[in-house]
Amino acid sequence: MTFSLGILAISPMRYVHADETVKIGVAAPLTGFAAYTGKDMENGARLAVEQINKDGLQIGGNRVQIQLISEDDAGDPRQATQVAQKLVDEKVVAVVGDLGSGTAIPASKIYSDAGIVQIAPTATNPAFTLQGFKTTYRLVATDAKQGPYLADYASNVLKIKSVAIVDDSTAYGQGLAEQFEKGAKAKGIKVLSHDATNDKATDFRAILTKIKGENPDAIMYGGLDSTGGPFVKQAAQLGLNMTVLAGDGVCTTDIAKLAGPGTKNIVCTIAGEPLMKMPKGPAFEEQYKKRFGFDPVLGSPFAYDAVYVIVDAMKRAQSTAQDKILASMPSTDYQGVLGGIKFDSRGDLLNSVISFYKYPSGKQTWVDTVK
Questions:
Q1: Which of 124, 268, 321, 328 could form a disulfide with 246 if both were Cys (CB 3.0 to 4.6 A apart)?
Q2: 290 and 265, same structural domain?
Q3: What is the chain's mean pLDDT, rounded?
Q4: 147 in Cβ contact with 179 (< 8 Å)
């Protein structure tokens, strides 16, 4: 039986063996505080590779088998550079990764020096593509859009007049918070304070007690759900029941498990459309659940498309050589799960979008999408 729906087509094997095996790397946190989002990203890439191999791939007249080389960066910048060098030594032709800006940015220099395409599915810090590297690409909007759009929503929709900001001191969390602060001030929102914690913190009561004395209309938290969840939970426990604004690091399907009753206070953004609104999102979700037995989390459709974008570059170049793939990337014009994928001169996604979510009854619920 053949299941056919655009890029999700699955057909019987067309060849017995490959003339060539090509390695694509995945760098993601497979252990540590962000492991479940990293595994989700790896699953998306794996699903793409399995479907490409099942469908059959020919490049330059050769039958090509894709091999996924997955490495664990543990969400740690230093380990991310070690992983990057390991993937370079493995002679991968391109890399899907890293998950977050704090790992994608330090790893990018190594991939650039090696001339290897790096597609970050969900890294949002603008600095990632502002380094002048020809190898860096991403499939989501940057925090230069996410932060100001969150500030716009806070001002125009939520009518917030004052805010206290806290970030986790990572490239992602601090970068998003800084972009939000610029946007908030531009909208006339009074920023009462901007405090920093860290991505390993568990007790936020000192910061939250100070914020309670400031009595802001809202709190903005820049960081991941692993700290954002306990932050929101402790805020509610201290009687701070105002809106907590956050970005895609907090805006996960599982945040309610970490934030408890405080989840109802969260208003957050994701740099991309919700899966149900993506052109091929429902079909992807069906295939993902069939393969892995559970729902996608966040980054899997982006990682899935990243693999297909790399293979599309191979097809257009009619080559599996990493320099030919790199040369082919700027002219990408691919229709994926996410929709149309094109890049600007820096490697940022053209026509990117920001989606807003709330959590009534603890369930992630899409509110709006801004293009």
A1: 268
A2: no
A3: 94
A4: yes
* Longest distance between any two alpha carbons in the chain, whole Å: 69
Q: Report pLDDT digits (tens) over 44-88.
A: 999 999 999 999 999 999 999 999 999 999 999 999 999 999 999
C-alpha angle 219/190/247, rounded to 5°? 35
Residue pLDDT, tens place only, 329-349: 999 999 999 999 999 999 999
Query: How far is 65 from 19, CA to CA, in rounded Å?
Result: 8
Domain membership of residue 364 (yes or no) is: no
Distance CA 116, CA 258 (A): 37
- The pTM score is 0.90
In angstroms, the CA 208 to CA 74 distance is: 28
In a domain, 354, yes or no: no
294: left (phi over 0), alpha (psi -120 to 50) or beta: beta
Residue 196: its pLDDT value, please?
98
Radius of gyration, CA atoms only, the chain: 21
Query: Which residue range is the domain that position 10 belongs to?
Result: 6-141+275-341
Beta-ladder partners of 22: 66
Please tell me the total count of domains within the chain: 2
CB 310 within 8 A of CB 139: no
> CA nearest 270: which of 147, 337, 355, 157?
355
Q: Is residue 125 part of a domain?
A: yes
Backbone angles phi, psi at 26, to 5 degrees: -130, 125
- The residue among 270, 300, 330 that closes a domain is 270
Q: Tell me the CA distances in angstroms from 266 to 113, 218, 294, one per residue in order.
A: 41, 10, 25
DSSP 234-276: HHHHTT--SEEEE-TTT--TTHHHHHGGGGGGEEEEESS--GG
Phi first, then psi, for residue 121 (nearest 5°) are: -65, -40
Asked if the peptide bond before residue 152 counts as cis, ω within 30 degrees of 0, the response is no
- Residue reference for tokens 């191979």: 314
